[in-house]
Design brief:
There is one protein chain. By secondary structure, this protein is mostly helical. It folds into two domains: 93 residues, DNA polymerase, domain 1, CATH 1.10.150; 172 residues, hpI Integrase, Chain A (Orthogonal Bundle), CATH 1.10.443.10. The chain has 14 helices and four strands. The strands form two sheets. A two-stranded antiparallel sheet has the order 1-2. A two-stranded antiparallel ribbon has the order 3-4. A hairpin with a 2-residue loop joins strand 3 and strand 4. Helix 2 packs across helix 5, helix 6 runs antiparallel to helix 7 and helix 7 crosses helix 11. It is elongated.
Length: 295
């Protein structure tokens, strides 16, 4: 990348970190996407014109639609920054490729399958064994609070306080949010804490640090297998999807769900509305003002 373009990308990323609170991983992804675009446009980036951008569609034809969409979004934001800061007069991003693709629906478990996982985990935890107590606490927090895997494994030892019905979680973009913690989860965590050394910084210690996401993935799959569920269908993120899906099915407001999940854009949350279309139709028929009017 030319020195001028590199300097502008650095300024753009500084803005993203300061104003948008972008994480280190997000900034690295933006830098990579802008670098790939620079290569595809033969060294043009900050000075690219609409014709340069229109050719990207042909050069990126073999890429996945999601990759093209992500790179286009990075360029769109970059050019918007240049215009806002007076570094160029026009915004050529209208010429960027806009791939059409269907967003995959989340994999989910039904409530009966979730119940089987809990029944097995609770039976094993009744023995008082440390590993079984830990696994039940993990399951309670994944399904009961909708935590991301990274959020769960990095919880500090004192994250769950007796009598306090919520957790403060640091999620994507280093943003904090409150998530609910059920009395069941509180009880499970309390029993697990009996096995956690008082010197531990983490609620779920593992090795020299905290439990890894890979190990969490393995634990969740084993809990599924023990419940007679195909392990390939289950992951920590699938349990987060189940949390969202079952809350929505129970009547949760979409905006509340957005807040609980820590989604920056409600469009991300709206994907869960597919799961219970019959209930939504029934809700409209029962609650809409016209439903009570006679024909």
């Amino acid at each position: 990348m030319s020195p001028d373009d590199r300097a502008l990308v650095d300024r753009f990323l500084d803005m993203m970190a300061a104003e948008a609170g972008a994480s280190r991983h997000t900034l690295a992804a933006y830098r990579n996407d802008l670098g790939q675009a620079w290569l595809a446009m033969d060294g043009a980036l900050s000075t690219a014109d609409p014709e340069d951008l229109s050719r990207l569609g042909r050069k990126w034809v073999d890429l996945a639609p999601s990759t093209v969409a992500r790179r286009s979004a990075a360029l769109r934001r970059f050019y918007g920054f240049l215009v806002d800061d007076g570094l160029r007069k026009d915004d050529p991003s209208a010429a960027l490729p806009r791939p059409r693709f269907e967003r995959p629906l989340p994999r989910i478990l039904d409530e009966a399958e979730i119940s089987r996982m809990f029944e097995g985990a609770e039976d094993r935890a009744a023995s008082g064994e440390a590993v079984a107590s830990r696994n039940l606490a993990l399951l309670e927090l994944l399904y009961g609070s909708g935590l991301r895997a990274s959020e769960l494994v990095t919880l500090p030892r004192g994250a769950v306080r007796i009598g306090q019905p919520f957790l403060m979680v640091r999620g994507k973009g280093d943003k904090e949010r409150l998530v609910p913690i059920s009395s069941r989860a509180e009880t499970a965590v309390s029993r697990w804490l009996e096995h956690v050394p008082g010197s531990s910084l983490w609620l779920f210690p593992g090795g020299k640090k905290h439990l890894s996401r890979v190990r969490l993935f393995q634990i969740v799959r084993q809990l599924a297998a023990d419940a007679g569920i195909s392990p390939e269908r289950v992951s920590p993120h699938v349990l987060r999807h189940a949390f969202a899906t079952h809350l929505l099915s129970g009547g949760a407001d979409l905006r509340v769900l957005q807040s609980l999940l820590g989604h920056a854009d409600i469009a991300t949350t709206q994907i869960y509305t597919h799961v219970d279309s019959a209930r939504l139709v029934e809700l409209v028929n029962a609650r809409h003002p016209l439903a009570t009017r006679g024909r």
